[in-house]
Amino acid sequence: MRTFTRTLTVAGSVAAAIAVGGLASAHAAGTTLSKGHVDVLDVEYDGVALDLHVHDESVTPDVEYRPADVVLQALPASAYTVPTGSCYTHLGTAGSTVLRLPQVQNANLLWPGLSGEHLASGVFQNNKVQVKLVSVSGPGRITVYKDGLCPKSNRYYDSGDATLTNAKDITAGEHDHANWVFTKAGTYIATFQVSGTLTNGTKVGPASATYTFKAGS
Hints:
Elements: H1 14-19, H2 23-26, E1 31-33, E2 36-45, E3 50-56, E4 63-65, E5 70-74, E6 79-81, E7 97-101, E8 110-115, E9 124-137, E10 142-145, E11 155-158, E12 167-171, E13 175-177, E14 179-182, E15 186-198, E16 203-215
Parallel strand pairs: 1-5, 2-8, 5-16
Antiparallel strand pairs: 2-3, 3-4, 6-7, 7-14, 8-13, 9-12, 9-15, 10-11, 10-14, 15-16
């Protein structure tokens, strides 16, 4: 597990932000994140409730945002040509262009992660919580998948496929990366929910968070 220097959530107290020396002006609400390592689905539990944050690790010290306070952008340079074959039909027609934030880090693009590193072991049953994609509105579909022999079989989320559960278990201590694809340029609003069951059987959540993604310029 990596070691983090934790800072306050940007959308928290304005007074606290000013107290840490200009944090409010440097990371104001409405910030667009378009490059660097950012855990988009960063799960936390404060002993009472689960929460989803956006954790920007591309700056020092690292910063946490409420999802509603940032725009996550797939720059035009993320353009990706859909390969031929049935394993890629979830991305669109072969030869067409989508916007893809890749699983493997590219310094010129946003590198979105999924993280359970802030969850302590032994708190939730099987050390897992579940993050579910509830809804997406936008010009196309969002699909999140891992590279493999047949990427279509390795999807975490796909807003265009009602046969998927669109839910992924996040393990305490886990840090993961996948490809995030937006099939058409434009703005997407996506809602995720996180829920879990404590080791004593108490259910926690679901807690919802709404994200804004901008695909293209």
